[in-house]
Amino acid sequence: MATKERESSSWEVPRLTPGARAALDAAGRLFYERGITAVAVESVAEAAGVTKKTVYDRFKSKSALVCAYLSERDSRYRGWVESWIAEHPETPPVLAVFDALDAWMTARGPKGCAFVHAHAQLLDTPEHPAHRVINGQKQWLHDTFRDLAHDAGVRSADALAAELLCLHEGACVMHSTTDITDAVTRARRAAHVLLQDALATGGRSAPGRK
Amino acid sequence: MATKERESSSWEVPRLTPGARAALDAAGRLFYERGITAVAVESVAEAAGVTKKTVYDRFKSKSALVCAYLSERDSRYRGWVESWIAEHPETPPVLAVFDALDAWMTARGPKGCAFVHAHAQLLDTPEHPAHRVINGQKQWLHDTFRDLAHDAGVRSADALAAELLCLHEGACVMHSTTDITDAVTRARRAAHVLLQDALATGGRSAPGRK
DNA sequence: TTACTACTATACTCATCGGTATGGCAACTA
DNA sequence: TAGTTGCCATACCGATGAGTATAGTAGTAA
User: Fold this and answer.
1) Where along the sequence lies the DNA-binding region (chains A, B) (predicted)?
2) How far is the CA of B65 from the C1' of C13 (A)?
3) What is the CATH code for B67-202?
4) How does pLDDT run across B39-88, given as a tens digit for each residue?
5) Do residues A120 and B121 lie in contact, with contact meaning Cβ atoms separated by under 8 Å?
6) What are phi and psi of B37, to 5 degrees?
7) Angstrom distance (rounded) from CA A205 to CA A153
8) CB spacing of B116 vs A116 below 8 angstroms
């Protein structure tokens, strides 16, 4: 359940050869730090220590490479959040998501959300397959918040999920566009208040499953 | 106070000639809809009904045009929010900001925040002067929230401001990356809860200034 | 009349970049 | 031994785009 099989699309990469792995790693760094459209495939190849030909032999196109990059990042973040929740059973899961985000930001650079950035960088090509990956990431986050809220006993879990997602996304954005460094901490505190409010006013529904 | 004089920078445009006005209008549409890096100066000129030469005669460079675009949008949004607050004295100002955002989104297309998008699109050039405009816009929003919260009697106005900014930014992001259409409404409700909580637990400080 | 301003029109330079072509080499496998 | 796979190296094509150059026109102000 943690690693749900994603439908195989045109850009899907079955198994990664060493060259493909190196290219995808380099793409992960460069696309995130400098932006997708600003980084040439040539640069990715150079940083990976392979030739441009190899990149195109492993990935059909730059679009496919971009999708692989975002898809892998998506998987990583999902795994990160899910294992954080599992490893911190004493923390209310809804809040643990924010702790996971905080730790993720600390571990890697606080440069903002790769998916939000990708969306902006690919604004001119709405048909770009990466948009499906981007939407999928946000949808997963929303559904996760909704399920966790529901399990916590919140009746209007769907509404709360949207509010929590606001906080999550907003905290990421603030890390990239403001000097505020404790945005995630603030978002977590706000989430705590919203959760308490939802439990107090909306009332508890069923006891949390499992 | 509504239209505070901004310091004149290298990209500042004193008075706009008809050609410059047309170019800036076209840039405003195209940069926002398709993205800054994806739109050529040539395209802006064509859409404006002027020649590329005219654009470069009025604006030193594409960077200057981008700054003028963002700066003008910044001014417009500030004015929009400030007059919305003034025209709705019955609404708590902190919440009126979200109403203003909602109305702004409804009036124009809900395509997300131009500044967040610009930041992502200009990731590779940290020295780009537009980053100052972007940071300025977010700083203004934060300071506005802080002042309004303080006026409402919130003691920890600075902390609340960061949380409200999270909600504001998050709601914008959700409009561009998810199918959730009532993000601003949800953010407003969350802001209401946070405000009540801040007033109840943090306690009121001084009575709101005039 | 002169000079400046705002503009049109077109052509050009230079750089970047997505993607392809060609050709070759080493390892593994049928 | 033959074929396939994964890779290297290099060159190339076509498109796009920032910015410049040149030359000319209409209005306006000294």
Assistant:
1) 40-59
2) 23
3) 1.10.357.10
4) 999 999 999 999 999 999 999 999 999 999 999 999 999 999 999 999 99
5) yes
6) -75, -20
7) 5
8) yes
CATH class of B16-59: mainly alpha
pLDDT (tens digit, 9 = 90+) per residue, A76-126?
999 999 999 999 999 999 999 999 999 999 998 778 999 999 999 999 999
Count the residues in chain B: 210
Domain ranges for chain A: 62-202
- Bridge partners, residue A154, by sequence: A204
The owner of tokens 């978002």 is: A187
Three-state secondary structure readout of chain A: CCCCCCCCCCCCCCCCCHHHHHHHHHHHHHHHHHCCCCCCHHHHHHHHCCCHHHHHHHCCCHHHHHHHHHHHHHHHHHHHHHHHHHHCCCCCHHHHHHHHHHHHHHHCCCCCCHHHHHHHHCCCCCCCCHHHHHHHHHHHHHHHHHHHHHHCCECCHHHHHHHHHHHHHHHHHHHHHCCCCCHHHHHHHHHHHHHHHHHHHHCECCCCCC
Answer for the pair A10, A45: CB distance below 8 angstroms, yes or no.
no
Q: Is any Cβ of chain A less than 8 angstroms from the Cβ of B62?
A: no
Interface test with B, best of A166, A176, A186 (most B CBs within 10 A): A166
Residue nearest to nucleotide D7 (CA to C1'): A54
